[in-house]
Automatic annotation (TrEMBL):
Signal peptide (residue range): none
InterPro entries per UniProt: DGC-Regulatory_Protein, GGDEF_dom, Nucleotide_cyclase, Rev_trsase/Diguanyl_cyclase
Keywords assigned: Membrane, Transmembrane, Transmembrane helix
Domain GGDEF as annotated: residue spans: 236-370
UniProt-listed PROSITE patterns: GGDEF
Protein name: GGDEF domain-containing protein
SUPFAM superfamilies the record matches: Nucleotide cyclase
Pfam families: GGDEF (PF00990)
Transmembrane segment boundaries: 21-43, 49-72, 93-112, 118-137, 144-162, 168-187
Domain of life of the organism encoding this protein: Bacteria
Length: 370
């Protein structure tokens, strides 16, 4: 039976994997457009009420996928989620996703039953591309990925086999073999990333630690930056977030340094759970922390993480029978590849941190007694 800390780590890993579902909406847009083209090609050649109903249902499900991802993206990527909340947003994502897969499978069945080789060609390309997109976009959640791949491909391949033509039987056999291999790859990737995420959240991937929080210290931060920045293309974006805690000094004054130390440990735990796989959280000393993001696709991803961190820290801490409310100020710098050194980025992020603190005015967050 797992201990409480193990259960907590398991929950945090699960939340992190669910967040991955909302990272990118582009595959759903591209797939919707590709399906629309294939549907138009097929319907123009062989119109029927059943085909029209299937096509419309698939397009509705595709639109719902896009709406759900766009509407839920900010909360999924910025909010501090419990396991139950993560399960809810995973279910919300899965419904239209599986619905589209079902309609795509039915569409493929109709396509391969029709005597239209040009439609067959476009449809098999569509199905293979869909499976590749599923493996990339939601491969960390096999309970969604595997049924989606099977629902989309199996009906069409069954229809291809029933044509009793050697070429079509061969096509179905090859496609199904790739489907099985793709499913296995999803499972292997999920197992690997789950283990890696667990290691990161437990802060065992780096040896040099801050004694109190077990976060990497400044020396480890420099080593990690040097090592990983080489792996980022010169056009890749790197974000540095420098933060300190607002309202922390009154915690030490009112409750004493032992409670203050527990608050810092709790903050470190929350920061571990807020960042992505591959990002780094380090303690600089006192109540100052740094988060580094590598491989950003757009500068807005840095803003999303800063907002997630703020929401994470502002949730009250219950320590030593007291409810303690603090907040954080964050200075963020986004750099293009390796154009600047870590020291330069830290200095600018620190300057922006204090600009943010001056803009907020005197610290107003005070510790509250339970």
């Amino acid at each position: 039976m797992a201990t409480g800390s193990q259960e907590s780590l398991t929950d945090r890993v699960y939340v992190e994997l669910v967040r991955s579902l909302y990272q990118n909406v582009a595959p759903a847009v591209v797939m919707g457009a590709a399906f629309l083209f294939d549907f138009w090609l097929f319907y123009r050649a062989a119109p029927s009420p059943a085909l029209m109903a299937t096509g419309v249902a698939a397009l509705v499900a595709s639109a719902a996928r896009i709406v759900v991802t766009v509407a839920g993206r900010e909360r999924a990527l910025t909010a501090m989620l419990t396991r139950d909340e993560a399960r809810t947003i995973e279910g919300t994502f899965a419904l239209p996703y599986l619905g589209f897969a079902l309609m795509l499978g039915l569409f493929g069945l109709f396509a391969f039953r029709a005597p239209l080789p040009q439609v067959h060609m476009v449809t098999i390309c569509l199905l293979v591309a869909y499976c590749a997109g599923v493996a990339t976009g939601c491969g960390l959640r096999p309970r969604i990925a595997l049924p989606s791949m099977a629902l989309a491909v199996a009906p069409a391949m069954a229809a291809a086999i029933l044509r009793a033509d050697a070429a079509y039987v061969g096509l179905a056999g090859i496609t199904l073999a790739f489907l099985v291999a793709g499913m296995r790859s999803v499972l292997v990737r999920c197992a690997f990333d789950t283990a890696a995420t667990g290691q990161r959240l437990a802060s065992i991937s780096l040896a040099r630690r801050d004694v109190l929080t077990t976060l990497p210290n400044r020396l480890a931060l420099n080593e990690y930056f040097t090592e990983n920045a080489r792996l980022v293309s010169r056009h890749g974006l790197i974000a540095v977030h420098y933060l300190d805690l607002d309202g922390f000094k009154p915690v030490n004054d009112r409750f004493g340094h032992p409670v203050g130390d527990q608050v810092l440990q709790a903050v470190a735990e929350r920061l571990r759970g807020a960042v992505r796989h591959g990002d780094l959280v380090a303690r600089m000393g006192g109540d100052e922390f740094v988060v580094i993001q590598f491989g950003l696709g757009h500068a807005s991803e840095a803003e999303l993480l800063a907002r997630r961190i703020s929401a994470t820290i502002e949730k009250p801490f219950v320590i030593a029978d007291a409810v303690i409310a603090i907040s954080t100020s964050i200075g963020t710098v986004v750099s293009q590849g390796m154009e600047r050194t870590l020291d330069d980025l830290l200095r600018e992020a620190d300057d922006r941190l204090y600009q943010a603190k001056r803009a907020r005015g005197p610290e107003s967050a005070l510790p509250l007694s339970a």
